[in-house]
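Input sequence (59 aa), recorded before submission:
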Amino acid sequence: MFKFIKQYVETMTGVAIYPIISLLIFFIFFVVLLVYVKKMDKKRVNILSNIPLDQTEEQ
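Predicted structure, token format:
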């Protein structure tokens, strides 16, 4: 898939390398986010998931 995108971008005139850089930044951001979520402690996940249901504070 990346090969197809790279070939398509290379055929454009005047575009240079910017679309490839933006695609890599986008992809790397979500990969890092996925790794962060996978490594997150289960206790912290439970605490964060219960925040909307917590009725101890007044709104």
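Checked by second reader. The chain has a mean pLDDT of 82.
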